[in-house]
Amino acid sequence: MRPILRHLIAACEWQTLRMSLVSNAILSSHVLDRSVHTTRTMGAEEQPLVTLSNINPNVKRMEYAVRGPLVIRAGQLEKELQAGKKLPFDEVIRANIGDCHAMNQKPLTFMRQVISACANPDLLETDLFPSDVKERVKLLLSFCGGRSVGAYSDSAGVEIIRRHCAEYIEKRDGIPTDYLNIVLTTGASEAVRAVLALINSSTADGIPTGVMIPIPQYPLYTATLAEYGMTSINYYLDESNNWQLQIEELQRALDEARGKCNPKALVVINPGNPTGSVLTHDNIKNIINFARKEKLMILADEVYQHNIYAENARFYSFKKVMHEMQVKLELASLMSASKGYMGECGLRGGYCELLNFDPDVKAMFFKMLSARLCSSVLGQIAMDCVVKPPEPGDPSYDLHEKEKSEVLESLKHRAQLAADTFNSIPGMKCNIVAGAMYAFPQIILPEKAIKAAQSLNQAPDFFYAMNLLESTGVCIIPGSGFGQIPGTYHFRTTILPQPDHLRRMMEKVKKFHVQFLEKYT
Amino acid sequence: MRPILRHLIAACEWQTLRMSLVSNAILSSHVLDRSVHTTRTMGAEEQPLVTLSNINPNVKRMEYAVRGPLVIRAGQLEKELQAGKKLPFDEVIRANIGDCHAMNQKPLTFMRQVISACANPDLLETDLFPSDVKERVKLLLSFCGGRSVGAYSDSAGVEIIRRHCAEYIEKRDGIPTDYLNIVLTTGASEAVRAVLALINSSTADGIPTGVMIPIPQYPLYTATLAEYGMTSINYYLDESNNWQLQIEELQRALDEARGKCNPKALVVINPGNPTGSVLTHDNIKNIINFARKEKLMILADEVYQHNIYAENARFYSFKKVMHEMQVKLELASLMSASKGYMGECGLRGGYCELLNFDPDVKAMFFKMLSARLCSSVLGQIAMDCVVKPPEPGDPSYDLHEKEKSEVLESLKHRAQLAADTFNSIPGMKCNIVAGAMYAFPQIILPEKAIKAAQSLNQAPDFFYAMNLLESTGVCIIPGSGFGQIPGTYHFRTTILPQPDHLRRMMEKVKKFHVQFLEKYT
């Protein structure tokens, strides 16, 4: 990071973010409540008991841009189109969230066959499914209570699925893995929230627990830290260097935070969301050394581990690098069935591996999770199909490999298309999309546009994104929802629309951007 | 409640509960971590960073008995039996948790056909399913992103399912219902946790937010309140009066709590868990008047609304009674796909209706939920089949009605069997099981048994339950996990084992109890 930018951070960042929050909050209450106002007719004698002034103030503070006002507005526009209203576009393109199937990615045949027969074992009596599907279903059901996916699993998940996760990690990293360290979760989000809840001693200490998070970041982190009254220690990823993570910037962020909070954990998202970057082996090594020196546990968000596109990039797990270094630091590594080539977001499958944790602490973690009973058993089964896909020789193998490689190959092309298009637009620049599912281009906004935004009490990039949506139907999320160096503006778009769709979208963005610049210059 | 008992409460209750917590915690860490100890070989130079002394103290305090040490021990015994070890019994009977399918209840055909075809729409091309199943699947998928259950839904759930929930409530109560007040959740547990998080202003106020909960209660409530640093205001249900809820006891509990916390909500579980009681219309009316007078919102846990067995009992929703009274108090009403006659616990479907909430507050609630993205779409679909079952004339109707009534009829017989058997055992007495899925008999423990328990630092009823498990393989949960008047002892058992199974279990409990009394008298 350039030193000249650093001193800006403390001064401006929160102001920019706050402005965005305010405008978001106003809009979101406005949009959500229209219909409610009409149904609420509380008698004059009865005043509301639960009000904005007495609810949890942390809930008021939290913000979650990828599901925020832009997305709500996109939904309204879709309904207007359906109702036949004339708009300047004929479709809404939802590039706001990494939701593969919503963008018409086809589910994997093997996984959906397994899930359907687990839900309805009568199907095992038909000849609809290959033998490996039937065998998997019988194996999985034999580990479910009453052989039904309708029974609760253990809080940590169905034993055989935890074992399969452990085998997957062993195979990936070449390191023995204990299935008792694995817990199956509702996507990866639940694991993030649980780990942060576990280490949060803000109330007890009177000093907020601090967690280092990358900026830009996936807003689950800031939202959860806000909800829990914890402090985000923001470290900036280096945009001028393909969003790599610089150790000196980690140090700067931590040094500035010490005394203001009690730093306990370092979050790393690799491959990066929203940046699309992939950390190098050396980089991970340095991060681990930093965490060790500074006594921070590591929360490795590795949900995009299958999404690597750049020729020279490779996924290294924090577990593997830590093992090579013979370091034994507490590590929580997260995985999900929602991303990768399967993209099964709606099934809510995920797992978390807890490594090197004190056994007593781990017992507390498991106890805490037991209060939510268990994650969806069908979501766990989705995770099973991810960590244990058909093997060579299995009847489902060829089709599964074909489906998987087609998705990944297509995403690779779309990653390239997105970055190339953005770089061809005047006033826009974009790093290579080396992994994950997003591009995060920087946009240069004219002074007049910034002023127009401010007059509406909106963050400039929110103003840009809302204009884009209203003019073209393209829904992207402004950089202020993820964090960015103050005075810079970005947006995040997924690369998930199908190729033709993505091309159309890129043309719309390009045309809009040129017109926007003309209007405000 | 007898006045003589009241003064005991403040003095003894927490001591009894704490004793149980201590013994539970010791056992649970011991059991969970055996295998972990062998895999953890941290170098001498690296000390654990995350320890019991620096994690979230609220997590340490929370306790969740229905998934606690007894259940873990039951799992071990099952494994020992499988491995051929000789034990005093040949099966473990898990009567610890309301997990219908684990107890071999058969899933409903209609629901499982819909779920399997939603997961695998290729099945629509076969002639395996009746037309109403296929139509439902097509309708549901038309409301999913990319027509796939793998797409995220809106945070509040799939629109058509929310609408079906609203129709269900309208039909049940005869009151217009706005689908925008419905949010689909991961079981009912997620809704409980979200509502409590919303109203928790403990940190901001410096005074803990208080929530009135019944004792005995479902331990999700105490666990969540502990995790959130909130205060449980315990009101005792009247065991001598079939566990009815007495207004004077609500008043006593609240009066004693005022000044120590900031009471904001009243939780009512109806039909009752673990008590099996069903509130009368009059009782609900008085509770609403109390809440209104004391300015408390109501959290109505109504997940057992289909489970009514007693001839003179009927389910009245808080919504319906409030509507009749023309009272407009904030009400959160919870429902689940896990209970009733469907018992689909593993699918994690549920909904929450928020009634009479300030629109701004509701917007905050929805925003908070958006950070967890959405609940399992297949779980939502399970909920859809519950709220919109086949109708007369539909091809699936007859079979569905037959399956449903068989389950409910059988549960009714088992409810009677359980209470009758317990009442036939010397030193045991049990209220009528009018609804839900549990019996909560009181047991008179001899002084010698209490002393034996204390010498092991165990709550006496925990000692009893562990002895029962080790001698007979029957896993029930001691009353101390739910709360009880100090000096009284209970246990909760589900009535879910299939009829023959339940009879065998009852005989085992009877025989054990007699021997236990002989040994300790």
From TrEMBL, chains A, B:
Its EC number is 2.6.1.2. One of its GO terms (molecular function) is L-alanine:2-oxoglutarate aminotransferase activity. Keywords: Aminotransferase, Pyridoxal phosphate, Transferase. SUPFAM superfamilies: PLP-dependent transferases. Its cofactor is pyridoxal 5'-phosphate. PANTHER family: ALANINE AMINOTRANSFERASE, ALANINE TRANSAMINASE. This is alanine transaminase. It comes from Dinothrombium tinctorium.
